Amino acid sequence: MTIIKQDDLIASVADALQFISYYHPLDFINAVNMAYEKEESKPAKDAMAQILINSRMCAEGHRPICQDTGIVTVFLKIGMNVKWKTKLSLNEMINEGVRAAYNHPDNKLRASIMDDPAGVRKNTGDNTPAVIHTEIVEGSSIDVQIAAKGGGSEAKAKFVMLNPSDDIVDWIVKTVPSMGAGWCPPGMLGIGIGGTAEKAMILAKSALMEPIDIQKLKERGAKTTTEKLRIEIYEKVNALGIGAQGLGGLTTVLDVKIKDYPTHAANKPVAMIPNCAATRHAHFVLDGTGPSFQTPPDLNEWPKITWDVGPTAKRVDLDTITSDDIKNWKTGETLLLSGKMLTGRDAAHKRIQEIIKKGDSLPNGVDFKNRFIYYVGPVDPVHNEVVGPAGPTTATRMDKFTEMMLDKTGLIGMVGKAERGPVAINAIKKHKAVYLMAVGGAAYLVSKAITHSEVVAFPELGMEAIHEFKVKDMPVTVAVDSNGNAVHKDGPKEWQNIIRKKSLKN
């Protein structure tokens, strides 16, 4: 009989969550580096360079890879011969570990979990509760797999109940482009096949805990149905030309992981969940001998990559820019932003909408005339930091507010991640504004361009409050120009054609 102490589980969970906030799994780093080395699309290659540089900085500085430090997901396998020494329930112990990790004074992580999700959506303040899946198995130990899943990639999760005769690969190849780039490719696809609707989703999420090994599989050859599917999906999704950050390129997925389960004769449930460029998961086992702590990797395993914006990058003064200045910007151009800009996400946009609807004035310090807004919810700073990791959030969530912001506030530009939808693009074209893209998955690197930060409105919204940032040479790409041209439409289309021509030659 193994006795597991309450504090051992709490300490192990807290350690794992801190660890994965700043250390990528080495298999992920190696896979991104391999994709970086072979990439021919300059925008995609630049994006992967920033992801790799950011990863090394986070590993060295012990700060979060991404400002979205995720919702905690735990898979527990508890041996039947385990006995607990605790005053707390299993879920309470897990959540105590989450609470300790996210409030760590030297590396405070962002609280992103909202209680009353269909109502007031109040932040719980400590990122609890976790999503916990428990299985009772043979044995005398506890096997724990834990992940911190970003909201941007989780938002792109898909499920379908296919007919038994329907083709799984066809559905995936048709569905992946509809996910856009908000999941921050390159990443992994977790596929769950079979069971029931909820079982397929759990299988897909669980599959993302597995190591990246698609190249080894391709070398030895597929032996099972799921292995054949993995290779086929991997090759066909990459042939779509979506590329890193959706900019067009050779690599969209680094691996495809599949788990299956017997299902009803009338059904073929299929779930697909992507993992983003901030892939974060860890594994540990408790056997009664004390807590289990993660082993730091050797930083020499990280590739030594440098990235230069190049001589064609334009320097932009945000404090003097006008609507006339942005008219000649072209999609794909690299800009270096300096000066002041405001921030805002969903909650702030909703507040602004309500204020404008009432005919009231915006709060002091919130003047968007000839200014840019950055879609971001930063991590709190620690020690001497101006701001914590502050990478972009998915811009499409603000699409429904874009017409209002451009029409009513004098805003001329937006900065976020991934593509914009038709509603936003039409508004941008109508008002001759622009949308700029920063790299998702490079949050710590981006934060180093921010020289001053202060909350200017709605402090009660926490990380969704409106900040004013002062930036110096913040790198961005023109994603939608003032004529409505969009790099996320044109880039993948171009690279899909390039990949098709290459395959025909071979």
Description:
The strands form 5 sheets. The protein has a 5-stranded mixed beta barrel. A 4-stranded mixed β-sheet has the order 6-2-7-12. It folds into 3 domains: 1-148 and 299-307, no CATH class; 151-277, no CATH class; 314-491, Fe-S hydro-lyase, tartrate dehydratase beta-type, catalytic domain (fumarase, Alpha-Beta Barrel). The mean pLDDT is 96. Strand 4 (114-115) and strand 5 form a beta hairpin. It has helices at residues 6-22, 26-38, 42-61, 90-102, 151-154, 168-175, 197-207, 214-220, 225-238, 346-358, 399-408, 422-431, 443-447, 487-505; strands at residues 2-5, 71-79, 82-85, 114-115, 122-123, 131-137, 142-149, 158-162, 187-194, 253-261, 268-275, 281-286, 314-317, 334-343, 372-374, 413-416, 434-437, 450-457, 466-480. It is globular. It contains 14 helices and 19 strands. It has 506 residues and is of the alpha/beta class. The chain starts with a strand and ends with a helix.
First and last CA, distance: 60 Å
Any idea what the CATH architecture of the largest domain is? Alpha-Beta Barrel
Tell me the Rg in angstroms.
23 Å
Fraction of helical residues? 25-40%
CATH topology of the largest domain: fumarase
| Tertiary shape | globular
Query: Which strand order does the major sheet show?
Result: 14-15-16-17-19
CATH superfamily of the largest domain, by name, is: Fe-S hydro-lyase, tartrate dehydratase beta-type, catalytic domain
Percent of sequence in beta strands: 15-25%
Number of domains: 3
CATH class of the largest domain: Alpha Beta
Major sheet attributes: 5 strands, mixed, barrel
